[in-house]
Design goal:
Layout (H helix, E strand, L loop, with lengths): L9 E5 L7 H11 L3 E5 L2 H4 L4 H8 L11 H15 L3 E6 L5 H4 L9 H25 L2 E11 L13 H23 L2 E7 L5 H4 L4 H10 L8 H12 L10 E4 L10 H8 L1
Parallel strand pairs: 1-2, 1-3, 3-4, 4-5, 5-6
The protein binds 1,4-dihydronicotinamide adenine dinucleotide (NAI).
Length: about 270
């Protein structure tokens, strides 16, 4: 159902890899709500070709950019502004990758060169994106930027590994840049802390099946789906949330504030 919440708005969406991606679902919902979109992903992800299906469905150009490369980001923003014929109203930063997780390294044995790359891709890339927009004055007054994070930034989930540290840094960049962009142009910057969701990045976490089932049982409303997350992103890009900024917004069916649920007690008593 469309409420035309994003009628006339223009946005860049990072990170739609395949139809399971949170960014993919968000792009579809933003389009339904009347937004014009530019899609972007790393050149290596674009080579998979999946994104072209999405691009066709929502009539969006695809512009490749590695989020760790400032030239790529500058080119992306310039091309997007040219395509839109003006400034940008919203950005979804839906990017994450852990090299140590990929290489099967335990948290107590991480490789620091991999770790630097992980932090650059998963955390400082938000700074790079905002910095590029800032330098080009690409974001319109009352613009909105959302990034995606996980509660492992606040609490220990052992198999989340170095991504816990990456998410803590990402949430800090959200607050810090949110301050400066709010001051300068009333642009808001927030992170959405999403339930475990079965995507390529999500399933990379060791023991993901147990992890997602546990979260389901530990949330009074169950896990929030990727579709629910897309809806939340739409509301954050709309004019209905203009004064929300520098926040980490839990979108998890109540998981973050639950001590225990009846379902978990029953499972323990078995
Ligand atoms: P996904 O695997 O579909 O998306 C991750 C995206 O990051 C991919 O499109 C990938 O190509 C992109 N990416 C990786 N390196 C890049 C680079 N150097 N330059 C540009 N793009 C790059 O998975 P998902 O789950 O949709 O992930 C999106 C975000 O949501 C991530 O930040 C993830 O940590 C976060 N998140 C995911 C949860 C889950 O359980 N799936 C839970 C909470 C947060």
């Amino acid at each position: 159902m469309s409420y035309n919440l994003l009628k006339g708005k223009k946005g860049i969406i990072f990170g739609a890899l395949d139809e399971k991606s949170i960014a993919w679902k968000t792009a579809l919902r933003c389009h339904e709500e009347g937004a014009q979109i530019v899609l972007t992903n790393a050149p290596v992800a674009l080579r998979m070709g999946e994104i072209n299906k999405l691009a066709e469905a929502i009539q969006a150009p695809v512009i490749g950019a590695d989020v760790t490369n400032m030239d790529d980001l500058k080119n992306l923003f310039e091309a997007a502004m040219q395509h839109f014929g003006g400034g940008i109203d919203f950005i979804l930063h839906s990017v994450g990758m852990s090299l140590n997780v990929r290489k099967g390294k335990h948290y107590t044995d991480i490789d620091y060169a991999f770790n630097q790359k992980t932090l650059d891709i998963s955390s400082m890339s938000l700074h790079r994106v905002l910095r590029t927009a800032w330098d080009l004055d690409a974001l319109n007054e009352w613009g909105s930027v959302v990034t995606l994070t996980y509660i492992a930034a606040q609490r220990i989930f052992p198999d989340y590994n170095e991504m816990a540290d990456a998410k803590a840094l990402l949430e800090s960049v959200t607050r810090s840049f949110g301050y400066h962009y709010g001051n300068r142009k009333n642009v808001r910057v927030n992170s959405i802390s999403q339930s475990p969701t079965a995507t390529t990045a999500g399933s990379g976490v060791k023991g993901f099946d147990g992890f997602i089932k546990y979260a389901e049982k530990m949330s009074p409303m169950g896990n929030a789906s990727g579709e629910d997350c897309a809806n939340y992103c739409v509301s954050m890009f709309s004019d209905l949330t203009r004064m929300v900024t520098m926040q980490n917004l839990f979108h998890d069916g109540g998981f973050s504030f639950t001590g225990v649920t009846q379902a978990v007690i029953e499972a323990m008593e078995k």
